[in-house]
Structure prediction request, 318 residues.
Amino acid sequence: MGKISFVNSNNPAITMSAVINFPEGFDGTRVYPAIVVSHPGGGVKEQTAGTYARKLAGQGFVTIAYDASYQGESTGEPRQLENPHIRTEDVSAAIDHLTTLPYVDKDRIGAMGICAGAGYTVNAAIQDRRIKAVGTVSAVNIGSMFRNGWENNVKSIDALPYVEAGSNARTADASGAATATMPLAPMKEADAPNEELRQAWEYYHTPRAERATAPGFATLRSVNQIITYDAYHMAEVYLTQPLQIVAGSVAGSKWMSDDLFDRAASRDKAFHVVDGANHMDLYDGQKFVDEAVLYLAAFFQRHLGAEAIANRHGIAAE
Prediction:
């Protein structure tokens, strides 16, 4: 395991910060399957994305967890921009870097993400065929969430005032005013409307998982791109790769995993429901995370392992 940096191939002005993890007994003269892991909106690589990346490396994969452009230890201004189109491209930029590493098998690259990072991963897979297998945990289609609410009980048109606010924020930004921000998770415990989102506050703003590089908010201008974005756009046509979805049985966000399962064109798709888990339990609840990893590891081994590549080329696996 080690911290690395690389130039973002989509924007050479940005340097991406990442952590790369190696399987036990790693041999740099061999080639390995690799998995890109994308963090939630407002998160960073040292939090839940790093947890999943480490655990999957223990199952025989080279894994990389990275900070999104404009966030964490990656560069880019304005800080905390959460532009979903850029975040989708960040997944492909991480894959671009992986393809330059001599120990990564370019034909065996998978991708997974948590929360909004799962949605961005799906959107990347729809357009980037180098992603051979897709995993999601507590998936959030960030556009749907901002339009329709955490529990899908808000009409899309009711989000129009937020588009207006984002538009006004861009004008203010252009005038040189202080950058306006919005929370991606409750900034104060009292702001949480329910226990699940109270745990989101706790995760980002207490010793449970807080990081100085993860302030928990985004630029208000980001809302313009977010509300009109659909992470699953054209999934019913182009998301043909194998897909493993994991969500908690009592997660308020589960409807977005249901929607993904229904819309994905993949003929090889599975949905594992973790009994008793809410959205945040799958970030760092040990028994819940271990259960998720059990299913994800088996899935990625099946589709990125030696047998999978042998079948792809019509030869016998060793």
